[in-house]
Design a protein that fits this description.
Order of helices and strands of chain A: EEEHEEEHHHEHEHEEHHEEEEEEEEEEHH
Number of helices of chain B: 24
Distance between the termini of chain B: 40 Å
Number of strands of chain A: 20
Low-confidence stretches of chain B: 263-269
Radius of gyration of chain A: 24 Å
Strand content of chain A: 25-35%
Low-confidence stretches of chain A: 360-380
Mean pLDDT of chain B: 87
Strand order of the largest sheet of chain A: 6-7-8-3-9-10
CATH class of the largest domain in chain B: Mainly Alpha
Oligomer: heterodimer
Shape of chain A: elongated
CATH superfamily of the largest domain in chain A: P-loop containing nucleotide triphosphate hydrolases
Largest sheet of chain B: 6 strands, mixed
Largest sheet of chain A: 6 strands, mixed
Distance between the termini of chain A: 31 Å
CATH superfamily of the largest domain in chain B: MetI-like
Mean pLDDT of chain A: 85
CATH architecture of the largest domain in chain A: 3-Layer(aba) Sandwich
Shape of chain B: globular
Number of domains of chain A: 2
Number of strands of chain B: 11
Structural class of chain A: alpha+beta
CATH class of the largest domain in chain A: Alpha Beta
Structural class of chain B: alpha/beta
Helix content of chain A: 25-40%
Number of helices of chain A: 10
Largest interface: A-B, 34 and 26 residues
CATH topology of the largest domain in chain A: Rossmann fold
Chain lengths: ~375, ~650
């Protein structure tokens, strides 16, 4: 399992002014893997990246790179390269000189530099931009120059700190695809930091979910989505109804006044658990035929489906259905065993998964907040 | 409305630039006058480059400005980067505020406090000369640093904090990263900081005034010291040149920074603006290098000396502190006295100027500088002797002392001729414009003649002002009787309504241009004015007048006594004294000059009229009570007349 590990973080802890930023992080990253650190702002993802980059010394722990502890290796000698949040392009140099910067530093001969720079600019579709000044480029173009600059010196690992955060939605989607293609083409390990779960799901081989300086879960996008370890992960990745339940015995859980069949086992008898049901996994039926029933308190047309908020025993569920239901309608709900995921109780229990305060407006506000790039100073 | 706006803007700029254009205009004046244009000529520009003195002061100023700007820029840049990198926002704010305070501080406070510091430290480490070029340089660096920081901080703030990390990431060690990435992005701030520091240092007067030593004089200090006589037109020429050089520098800096803002699409096409800016910078640099290296050495001495001068003290330094414009300096094909002395003896002369007896006294009293030669006036010599601030002269080493006219030996302030040797002599008389005044006046009473109401000028200092009334009243100029002063004050009050103005230096302008008809002033200066305006005439009032003697002395803080004696003897040399008498235009107490047939002013009735015609009186150093009394009276006169 650990045979082609390139970076191994061991027991990394960092605190600033008595405040814990990273709490005993343990993580390994395989060669040529696309790993994403995902979490809300302040979760420690950028700090972890900066420790790998060599810009920050952890208070304790080890950073193993290719089998060697590199804690004492300064940033400029590490075989990793970073693409910074706002690119950090050198404003006094033109595109060519920006891309050639690392090569010149390595005393590569001129012809070789020219060749490499042209190849890189070709790779990022900026051929012919060599003599342009940085300030004459658009955000997307600057992004590409930053990528070309980092890739020009052929790093083993590329660190990307919310690289698409400053781009508009359309451009972001395009760049996601391009970055993924590039990573596969070049065979370089990408460590990608983002707070955008969709970005993480669509690009990564492995996602590392972080919150409050701790790793909450590591896994493939499918694992994380389908088998969240706790209420935080379940809520952060996609929409989830997280309902209090009791595990009656293996394969039987009781919640919302009904006993459901499920596929989970290995819990103690009558153990209190968190039950996760994704909104799209609920079948809407007539009240009489449903396993449980409730009243629709809000209905929004989303195009492909309606998004309903349903009050079931004073707990607000989110349900996505193609059936048209109006506010005030009483509906029945069916949930098949495969759609139920049981989690052990955690510190996050009870904080997430209830849509009682939900409204579209809030959601949008949340997104706006999340889109503001967080000063890494503050996070670090 | 638009037209009104334009007119207003034009007026503002006219107001700002008119003085400069007037100055540039007069720098091309054929004559010496600052009010009458006598024809176009490059005379003063030529003069500028043939007068060693001015060029020395200019070179000093440039060396000081370049050194202080360079050092302040380095220190300021490092400090700014340090402040910017501070983690504590509070500490940053405090430091920046602290940085702002020196800029708000009045220069005079900065100057005085720096002087006190230097003197204090100098005493602690036992220096006799605590003020020197070094202290001046330190002061300039000190007041420049805040401006450099102020210029760099905004650029640092604009710089992405990740730039350094990005450079390190690409393989630069931290220090290289700073030079390769941070420095270029703040370079325009550094440049404007350096230029600002340079210009501030270039024209600083007040701080330099307090912190300069005896071995160095900058241009602003020199110009200020010229106020005893008039500012010479070669200064207009120099100021015009400096204005143009600074203008070029500013335009160049602006062109570059404007260029930078516009961010040309292609960096390598060399837009015209950059070329222009480059050419301008080259011009500025060349003129600075020219000024720094300029030596006017096409100068051969053919003087025969009475005494013999040895090279015994060659390599030593002599600090001479004299009035501005009070020595023949090589301008107008005259002899450069100091250079002549340097060639003859190998002694280096540091020649600096003061503008009044009191300024000289204050500098001497500060004990922070030592001079070897000073040239104070009579009453000041009395005061200096009284306070033990002069050293006795060894007359056996001054062979040429026998050339001093017996009339100027044993004068009241130095009865035994132990401390001083007369340098110049002058009398106050009345200058009048023959086209405006009827007949030939012969009395002070003309200054009270209502016929000339509005055209009479009066001295704008108490002692000289009182003198005019005291003479008319036939009083002793050094009376300690309060009733005498009261009577004189009464007379001056009567005069107030008919006065055109109370002036000192402006007398030159007003009389030369015919703006005033009557003014009391020194005979020597009248000759200068008459050159410009031949309608002017001069007389010594029959009631008597004030006479002054400026004498060469050696202060008790002397460092190079033997060389000082040699210098004094040299000043008495017939050829040297002649050159000085021709240049200064005051009467000479040196009989070799007075009797010299080559002396253009030989027997000049204005300068050398016998004092049989009119009684003359010296000013004495009055006691404090009397001084306070007449000063109070004078203030009242000024107050009631306005």
């Amino acid at each position: 399992m650990k045979n082609n590990v390139i970076i191994d973080l061991k027991n990394i802890s960092v605190a600033f002014d008595g405040e814990t930023i990273l709490n005993n992080i343990n993580l390994f990253i395989r060669d040529k893997e696309f790993v994403t650190f995902l979490g809300p702002s302040g979760c420690g993802k950028t700090t972890t990246l900066r420790i790998i980059g060599g810009f920050l010394q952890p208070d304790s722990g080890e950073v193993i790179f290719d089998g060697k502890n590199v804690l004492n290796v300064p940033a400029h000698k590490r075989e990793v390269n970073t693409i910074f949040q706002r690119y950090a392009l050198f404003p006094h140099l033109n595109v060519f000189d920006n891309v050639a910067f690392g090569l010149k530093q390595r005393k590569v001969d001129k012809a070789q530099i020219k060749e490499t720079v042209e190849k890189m600019l070709d790779l990022v579709n900026l051929k012919g931009f060599e003599k342009r000044s940085i300030s004459s480029l658009s955000g997307g173009q600057q992004q590409r120059v930053a990528i070309a600059r980092a890739l020009a010196i052929k790093p083993r690992v590329l660190l990307l700190d919310e690289p698409l955060g400053a781009l508009d939605l359309k451009l972001r989607k395009d760049m996601q695809v391009e970055l993924k293609n590039m990573q596969q083409q070049l065979g370089i390990t990408f460590i990608y930091v983002t707070h955008d779960q969709e970005e993480a799901l669509s690009m990564s081989d492995t996602i590392v979910i972080m919150d409050k300086g701790k790793i909450q879960q590591i896994g493939t996008p499918q694992d994380i989505y389908n088998e969240p370890k706790n209420a935080f992960v379940a809520d952060f990745i996609g929409e989830s109804n997280i309902v209090d339940g009791v595990m009656l015995e293996d394969f039987f859980v009781r919640m919302a006044g009904h006993t459901f069949k499920c596929l989970d086992k290995g819990f103690a008898v009558n153990e209190q658990v968190d039950v996760v049901i994704r909104p799209e996994d609920v079948d809407v039926v007539e009240p009489e035929t449903g396993m449980i029933s409730g009243q629709v308190t809000n209905s929004i047309f989303k195009g492909v489906f309606y998004e309903l908020i349903v009050d079931i025993k004073n707990f607000k569920w989110m349900v996505q259905t193609t059936k048209h239901k109006e506010e005030g309608d009483v509906i029945g709900l069916n949930i098949v065993p495969d759609s139920i995921h049981i989690m052990k109780k955690s510190e996050y229990s009870g904080q997430f998964g209830d849509y009682s305060s939900f409204s579209d407006e809030y959601e949008e506000l949340d997104n706006v907040d999340a889109d503001i790039p967080i000063e890494s100073e503050g996070e670090a | 409305m638009k037209i009104f706006n334009r007119i207003f803007t034009a007026l503002v700029f006219l107001f700002l630039y008119a003085p400069l254009f007037v100055m540039m205009f007069f720098s091309f004046n054929e004559g010496k006058s600052t009010s009458v244009f006598e024809g176009f000529s490059f005379r003063w520009y030529k003069e500028l480059f043939t007068t060693g003195d001015t060029m020395t002061a200019l070179r000093n100023t440039l060396v000081l400005a370049i050194c202080s700007a360079a050092i302040a820029t380095v220190i300021g840049t490092i400090t700014a980067v340090g402040i910017h990198g501070m983690k504590s926002k509070w500490g940053k704010k405090v430091l920046l505020t602290v940085n702002d305070i020196p800029m708000m501080n009045p220069d005079i406070v900065t100057g005085v406090s720096l002087m006190l510091l230097f003197v204090f430290v100098g005493r602690l480490i036992g220096l006799s000369n605590s003020l020197s070029f070094t202290t001046l340089l330190i002061s300039h660096i000190t007041f420049n640093i805040p401006y450099v920081i102020l210029n760099i901080m905004p650029k640092l703030r604009q710089t992405d904090i990740h730039l350094v990390e990005a450079a390190q990431d690409l393989g630069c060690p931290p220090v290289t990263a700073f030079f390769k990435v941070v420095l270029p992005s703040i370079s325009s701030g550094i440049l404007s900081g350096a230029v600002m520091a340079f210009t501030l240092s270039l024209d600083d007067f007040i701080i330099s005034y307090y912190t300069v030593g005896s071995d160095f004089q900058t241009l602003p200090l020199k110009i200020y010291a010229m106020t005893k006589k008039t500012v010479k037109p070669d200064m207009y020429a120099l100021s015009s040149l400096m204005f143009i050089v600074i203008l070029l520098l500013m335009v160049a800096v602006n062109l570059v920074s404007q260029d930078e803002k516009k961010k040309p699409q292609r960096r390598h096409t060399f837009p015209a603006k950059r070329v222009v800016a480059g050419i301008m910078t080259v011009i500025v640099v060349i003129s600075i290098i020219f000024a720094l290296t300029y030596e006017n050495d096409d100068y051969e001495s053919q003087i025969v000396y009475r005494s013999t001068y040895t090279q015994e003290y060659a390599g030593t330094v002599l600090n001479v502190f004299n009035w501005g414009e009070y020595i023949s300096d090589g301008s107008d094909d005259s002899l450069n006295v100091n250079k002549e002395f340097e060639k003859l003896t190998g002694i280096k002369v540091n020649y600096t100027n003061y503008e009044s007896n009191e300024a000289m006294y204050a500098k001497l009293k500060s004990d922070a500088v030592s001079y070897d030669i000073i040239i104070p006036s009579d009453y000041m010599i009395a005061r200096l002797i009284e306070e033990n601030m002069l050293t006795k002269l060894d007359l056996s080493k001054i062979d040429n002392y026998d050339l001093i006219d017996e009339r100027y030996k044993g004068l009241y302030f130095d009865e035994n001729d132990e401390y001083s040797i007369p340098y110049t002599v002058g009398l106050v008389g009345i200058i009048y414009n023959t086209t405006m005044v009827e007949g030939t006046p012969d009395s002070w009473s003309i200054m009270w003649d209502e016929k000339y109401s509005g055209q009479i000028l009066q001295f704008n200092n108490s002692r000289d002002g009182f003198m005019t009334a005291q003479c008319l009243l036939g009083q002793d100029l050094n009376s300690t009787n309060k009733a005498d002063w009261d009577a004189a004050a009464e007379l001056l009050k009567e005069q107030s309504p008919i006065l055109g103005a109370r002036v000192m230096d402006e007398i030159f302008n007003k009389m030369e241009s015919g703006n005033a008809a009557i003014a009391p002033y020194y005979a020597g200066d009248f000759l200068t004015m008459q050159e410009v305006n031949p309608d002017l005439e001069f007389f010594y009032p029959k009631e008597g007048t004030n006479v002054f003697v400026d004498s060469v002395c050696i202060p008790s803080s002397v460092q190079n006594y033997e060389a000082a004696l040699m210098y004094i003897n040299f000043l008495l040399e017939p050829e040297i004294a002649l050159a000085n008498a021709e240049y200064i235009c005051y009467a000479s107490p040196n009989i070799s000059v007075v009797n010299n047939d080559n002396y253009s002013l030989k027997g000049d009735p204005y300068l050398y009229g016998t004092d049989a015609d009119y009684p003359t009186q010296y000013y004495h150093n009055l006691d404090k009570e009397t001084r306070d009394y007449y000063e109070a009276l004078w203030e009242e006169i000024i107050r009631t007349s306005s």
